[in-house]
Automatic annotation (TrEMBL):
<keyword id="KW-0812">Transmembrane</keyword>
<feature type="transmembrane region" description="Helical">
    <location>
        <begin position="155"/>
        <end position="177"/>
    </location>
</feature>
<feature type="transmembrane region" description="Helical">
    <location>
        <begin position="241"/>
        <end position="262"/>
    </location>
</feature>
<feature type="transmembrane region" description="Helical">
    <location>
        <begin position="99"/>
        <end position="121"/>
    </location>
</feature>
<feature type="transmembrane region" description="Helical">
    <location>
        <begin position="268"/>
        <end position="289"/>
    </location>
</feature>
<feature type="domain" description="EamA">
    <location>
        <begin position="18"/>
        <end position="142"/>
    </location>
</feature>
<protein>
    <submittedName>
        <fullName>DMT family transporter</fullName>
    </submittedName>
</protein>
<dbReference type="InterPro" id="IPR000620">
    <property type="entry name" value="EamA_dom"/>
</dbReference>
<feature type="transmembrane region" description="Helical">
    <location>
        <begin position="41"/>
        <end position="59"/>
    </location>
</feature>
<feature type="transmembrane region" description="Helical">
    <location>
        <begin position="184"/>
        <end position="206"/>
    </location>
</feature>
<dbReference type="Pfam" id="PF00892">
    <property type="entry name" value="EamA"/>
</dbReference>
<feature type="transmembrane region" description="Helical">
    <location>
        <begin position="212"/>
        <end position="234"/>
    </location>
</feature>
<feature type="transmembrane region" description="Helical">
    <location>
        <begin position="12"/>
        <end position="35"/>
    </location>
</feature>
<feature type="transmembrane region" description="Helical">
    <location>
        <begin position="128"/>
        <end position="149"/>
    </location>
</feature>
<keyword id="KW-0472">Membrane</keyword>
<feature type="transmembrane region" description="Helical">
    <location>
        <begin position="71"/>
        <end position="93"/>
    </location>
</feature>
<feature type="domain" description="EamA">
    <location>
        <begin position="155"/>
        <end position="283"/>
    </location>
</feature>
Length: 302
């Protein structure tokens, strides 16, 4: 590998790591905005859309040839799923610590495997099933459902799991969008948020100025900013780097939750998160469940 290639990969990795750091501020911004989940999602999309649109135009993506209609429709479906994900997650932030909600959201890779098995008839294999069991154990520890520490609101956990299901479904749809530029997909997703939620938002006149500050910061930072940074990284950073750095997001979220609100995860909750993170990486890289195994078990694609 040449020095120029390594430099490109390093810059891409830094861009993705920065994107995850910025994304980790989302939970605090949602809470500080103080608006209901539907209103928050609408303004997140509405204020980020012009920025992403300008960036896409600068990249030359708003001129022919355009992707076929099928891809636009699939992008719209993924947008609807992400809107559901955001609403459920933001509602969970109102009930449980944002760090805990984000950790629960990170169960989505395993839910994706389950959806792929049901919808696409992809068998995950015994090895992946073993890691799923470990991740579920981590979930029980992180949420305190085993009664070993931590406080939680059942509805908040349920909403976080609903968000994870929506995220997993959107990830599955994303498999069929590889031929569509990621920025165009993002534009469609943001547009779906604006068009679908515009009639259900709180009156603008009743919103305090502090809410507008946090909504604008959310749109520019962990939305438009992180999407642009991720766009710079995808296709340039190695999969291993992206998989590992993805966990910067929940770590930053948990740290900010502790610093801003004093809600520190217990040792058992941290252990639960580490189990989820480790199992997620294992599924991504298809590590053998038995480290002393001389060969890796065959796994289904994805």
């Amino acid at each position: 590998m040449g020095s120029e290639t390594r430099a490109v990969e390093m810059r891409a990795g830094l861009a993705f790591g920065l994107a995850m750091c910025v994304s980790g501020t989302l939970g605090v911004m949602v809470v500080e905005a103080g608006t209901d989940p539907v209103t928050t999602v609408f303004w997140r999309c509405a204020l980020a859309l012009p920025v992403i649109l300008l960036y896409a135009a600068w990249r030359g993506l708003l001129k022919p040839p355009f992707p076929p209609l099928k891809l636009w429709l699939l992008a719209g479906l993924s947008g609807a799923l992400f809107v559901g994900d955001w609403i459920a997650l933001f509602a969970a932030y109102c009930l449980i610590p944002v760090g805990l909600a984000t950790i629960t959201l990170n169960l989505y890779p395993f839910i994706t495997l389950g959806l792929a098995a049901v919808v696409l008839r992809e068998r995950p294999g015994w090895n992946a099933l073993g890691w799923i069991v470990i991740a579920f154990g981590g979930f029980l520890l992180a949420t305190g459902l085993l009664g070993l520490g931590g406080t939680w609101d059942p509805l908040g956990i349920i909403l976080s799991l609903v968000a994870a299901v929506f995220y997993a479904a959107a990830t599955l749809v994303g498999r069929f969008l590889k031929a569509m530029p990621a920025l165009l997909t993002t534009l469609v997703q943001m547009s779906v948020g604006v068009l679908s939620l515009g009639l259900f938002i709180a009156p603008v006149g009743g919103m305090p100025e502090t809410s507008w500050f946090w909504l604008a910061a959310m749109a520019l930072g962990p939305t438009a900013g992180s999407y642009v940074l991720m766009n710079l990284a995808f296709g340039r950073a190695r999969m291993a780097v992206i998989a590992v750095l993805s966990f910067v997001y929940p770590v930053v979220t948990a740290v900010l939750d502790a610093l801003v609100y004093g809600r520190v995860l217990t040792p058992l909750q941290i252990l639960g998160f580490l189990l989820i993170a480790g199992a997620s990486l294992a599924v991504t890289f298809r590590w053998p469940l038995n480290p002393f195994s001389s060969r890796r078990q065959p796994e289904a694609a994805g």
